[in-house]
């Protein structure tokens, strides 16, 4: 094992704790064994809570083989997790510890105030700036890729029609038409996946600069004449006039598609309403809407977050945590994000975040003052 400067100086290297997620539907784990081995080889001690990787099909034995110990991960210097902590989980942390994970900093209800009161230093992976050198740490994008892919599979499962064109002795079946509203990472992955399944794909976004990205995955661009590019790669909130125009044009367009997948989000605000009840009513019976914005209210007027319902003969599904349904690869991608951030926070075995660094400063939501 590599000796860190902390050990050479007679001090102990920082310990990293991998905790078991408490959410009933959360199957991901913050670090996979391969990432643990990398940290251990760099001289860090890694403690894994028993069963942390179980729901991602990663038993404790794989972690011990990678050099970790099974024990009280909540007592580590740096605790890493996936989902935002519950109040009970915050209570397990002590002053001076560091927490890394999704912390929902833009949500009105989160535990950041409680973490600050507890004296915990916390880094929110969703607050990492979208700059070139931070791409490897961009957990929002890595998990959005999973969600976009799985959304198409869900749509295909719920659909009453084939996605690809089929030529058979009994005749030819036309390919399904798929419209993706909101073309960020999840939207682009949805377009690419639907195209691979043989559908005719179309993408729409209020940011005109993503039109070339839509075409690059073999999809058509739906131009409604509305532009609303915002900061950080997100769309800004539309004016009332723009929203009315968008709604009118989308209602007309949506009725011609077999599948509509929505991914549109505005940070810190309710999801924009893109698919009205009238639009759903105008779709052919057997069509499908998959709404990935359910956690912030949904892009479809008839969405019931966390449920799959049928309205006007159209199936509307709004899963709340699609990445957790693919825990193996979702955990692998997230693990790389977290490991890359830890490499920025820990120098030669010592936890020493440089707050002059743009990535560190932006992602730190509390420095532990109480």
TrEMBL record:
Pfam families: AlaDh_PNT_C, AlaDh_PNT_N. One of its GO terms (molecular function) is proton-translocating NAD(P)+ transhydrogenase activity. Residues 17-147 form the Alanine dehydrogenase/pyridine nucleotide transhydrogenase N-terminal domain. InterPro entries: AlaDH/PNT_N (IPR007886), AlaDH/PNT_NAD(H)-bd (IPR007698), NAD(P)-bd_dom_sf (IPR036291). Its EC number is 7.1.1.1. Residues 156-318 form the Alanine dehydrogenase/pyridine nucleotide transhydrogenase NAD(H)-binding domain. The transhydrogenation between NADH and NADP is coupled to respiration and ATP hydrolysis and functions as a proton pump across the membrane. This is NAD(P) transhydrogenase subunit alpha part 1. The lineage of its organism: Bacteria, Bacillati, Actinomycetota, Actinomycetes, Mycobacteriales.
């Amino acid at each position: 094992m590599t000796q860190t400067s902390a050990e050479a100086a007679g001090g102990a290297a920082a310990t990293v704790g991998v905790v078991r997620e408490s959410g009933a539907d959360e199957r991901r784990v913050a670090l996979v064994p391969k990432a643990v081995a990398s940290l251990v080889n760099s001289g860090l001690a890694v403690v894994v809570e028993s069963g942390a990787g179980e729901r991602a099909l990663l038993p404790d034995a794989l972690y011990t083989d990678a050099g970790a110990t099974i024990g009280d991960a909540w007592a580590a210097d740096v605790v890493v997790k996936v989902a935002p902590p519950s109040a009970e989980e915050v209570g397990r942390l002590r002053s001076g510890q560091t927490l890394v994970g999704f912390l929902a900093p833009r949500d009105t209800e989160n535990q950041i105030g409680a973490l600050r009161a507890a004296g915990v230093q916390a880094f929110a992976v969703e607050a990492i700036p979208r700059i070139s050198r931070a791409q490897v740490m961009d957990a929002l994008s890595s998990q959005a890729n999973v969600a976009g892919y799985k959304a198409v599979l869900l749509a295909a499962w719920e659909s009453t029609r084939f996605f690809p064109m089929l030529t058979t002795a009994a005749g030819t079946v036309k390919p399904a038409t798929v419209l993706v509203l909101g073309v960020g990472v999840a939207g682009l992955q949805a377009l690419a996946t639907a195209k691979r399944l043989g559908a005719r794909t179309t993408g729409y976004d209020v940011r005109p600069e993503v039109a070339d990205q839509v075409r690059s995955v073999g999809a058509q661009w739906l131009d409604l004449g509305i532009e609303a590019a915002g900061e950080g790669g997100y769309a800004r909130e539309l004016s009332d006039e723009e929203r009315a125009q968008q709604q009118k044009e989308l209602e007309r367009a949506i009725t011609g598609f077999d599948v509509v997948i929505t991914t549109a989000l505005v940070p810190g605000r309710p999801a924009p309403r893109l698919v009205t009840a009238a639009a759903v009513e105008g779709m052919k019976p057997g069509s499908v809407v998959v709404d990935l914005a359910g956690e912030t209210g949904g892009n479809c007027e008839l969405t019931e977050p966390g449920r799959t319902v049928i309205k006007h003969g159209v199936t509307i599904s709004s899963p709340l945590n699609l990445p957790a349904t693919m825990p193996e690869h979702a955990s692998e991608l997230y693990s790389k994000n977290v490991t890359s951030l830890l490499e920025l926070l820990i120098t030669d075995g010592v936890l020493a975040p440089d707050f002059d660094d743009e990535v560190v400063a932006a992602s730190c939501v509390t420095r532990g003052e109480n």
